[in-house]
Design goal:
This protein has helices at residues 32-42, 73-87, 128-138; strands at 3-10, 19-26, 47-54, 57-63, 68-69, 90-96, 99-108, 111-116, 122-125, 152-155. With 156 residues, it is an alpha+beta fold. It folds into two domains: 3-118, Roll (Diaminopimelate Epimerase, Chain A, domain 1); 123-155, no CATH class.
Length: 156
């Protein structure tokens, strides 16, 4: 199988800045255990695993060194840059665990750039037992919370 692992820094033109992310490209996604092992070896907060579906459509999965995660913005940007470098500019449709994420990949001089349209954000109330545990961990009292800004669980 033809596969390649890249190490990039998203949101930066310097490898010393930005958000580091691993990007693995291959003909098909490996099983979960090898992806987990590779992400742990890379050691960055996230590594994206990308494999073709059809044309500009790709499967993408994200792993931290400890577990799979559903989505990662900076690893998606890094994956877009690698796709630009290896497959060319264009609009890629990345199939994530939380839905399709379109990524525009283009060149600005010698620099490859990528821009994504994120998945729809979600928010909901924090279950009371969770809130109590968080307040206890932070050594805060409920009275210290601003009633105009209720605690929420958010995904974005």
């Amino acid at each position: 199988m033809n596969e390649q692992l890249y190490r990039l820094a998203a949101f930066s033109t310097s490898p010393a800045g930005g958000n580091p992310a691993g990007v693995w490209l291959g003909e098909a996604l490996p099983d979960a255990a090898p992806m987990q092992r590779i992400a742990a070896e890379v050691g960055y907060s996230e590594t994206a695993f990308v494999a073709p579906l059809d044309g500009t459509e790709r499967h993408i999965r994200y792993y931290s060194p400890l577990r799979e995660i559903s989505f990662c913005g900076h690893a998606t940007i890094a994956a877009g840059v690698v796709l630009g470098q290896t497959a060319g500019a264009g609009r890629y449709r990345l199939q994530t665990a939380v839905g399709e994420v379109p990524v525009e990949v283009f060149r600005d001089g010698e620099q490859w750039l990528a821009a994504l349209t994120s998945v729809e954000p979600e928010q909901k109330a924090v279950p009371p037992r969770w809130l109590e545990r968080v307040l206890e961990a932070l050594d805060w009292r409920r009275e210290e919370l601003d009633p105009a800004l209720p605690p929420m669980l958010a995904y974005a």
